[in-house]
Amino acid sequence: MNHAETLPDGPGTDSVIIARGRRVLELERDALSDMHGSLDSSFVRAVRLIAASNGRVIVSGVGKSGLVARKIAATMTSTGTPATFLHPIESLHGDLGMVNSDDVAILISKSGNTDELAGLIEALARLGVHLIAMTTDATSHLARQAEITLSIAGREEACPHDLAPTTSTTASMALGDALAVALLQEKSFQADDFARLHPGGSLGRKLLTRVGDVMDMNVLVVLSPDSSMKDAVVLLAKQRGLAIVAEHDKVLGVVTGGDLARFLERDSADLQTPVHQVMASAPRTAHESELGSAVVHRMEQSGIMAMPVLDDSAKLIGVVHLHDLLRAGVA
Hints:
The structure is a single chain. The protein folds into two domains: 3-189, Rossmann fold; 211-327, CBS-domain. It is 45% helix and 15% strand. It contains 14 helices and ten strands. Strands 2-1-3-4-5 form a five-stranded parallel β-sheet, with helices on both faces. Helix 6 links the parallel strand 4 (130-135) and strand 5 (148-151). The radius of gyration is 30 Å and the shape is elongated. It starts with a helix and ends with a helix.
């Protein structure tokens, strides 16, 4: 389609500007759809080759493809596949020293005939490095030199002049994500592994903060089943809205502010009533080793503000409060 015929250049109305944006998204969506349908055994071979490698993944490209290569290398590294970006020009001026024969290289080029990659292709071949090509042209120089070729959707660029890399870079980045995630699963890379590689910032807090890091262990005065609701009222005030009913460190139930309110609405409400007649006898609990973010989700789903915390033997060891979890930054 000729963009200029339907979406003229120059200042446009609101609807024209929206149409321009939608056209870009349509082209890139269609490119991804093309790749989705054409993914084949070459992708399987690439995943298995990288998974079996004892070295790193070397990712390279020129210009916008180089920016995509940096992103792919970063994504792979953060998901358990060590990878690094190698500038194709700098590689010929000393940076090849970072490359070993047990590495796997992914070279990205829309045309596959990028002059700046030629020297790097030759150098990688001399080193015996396995080469994976990401290109639109299966007959290009890069594809002919590669052991495996992964096809980038060959649709027109979203640029109205079919020049600025847009559709092709989106396709390349998505294909890199597909490789990284497939490798993650191939290697059984788990959330705990991810957490170890992301200790900083909000993501690190979500992945590293456990209930045991946040729970309150100083408010473990408990009620017996025969304690009175008067005792529960006192304990609710002292222990931030959660009174735990337990025997021998085993939780039998809880009384919350909501339970107390419903109890007091009864015509027969008597503060000498035993708590076992009022308590929730199947309370939701948390385990000390659980991720705080998972417990926040359960609390929000259930509309509760606190949970008893248990250890591996189901022994009561603390209380975790929603406010403390949120203050720790795990949500």
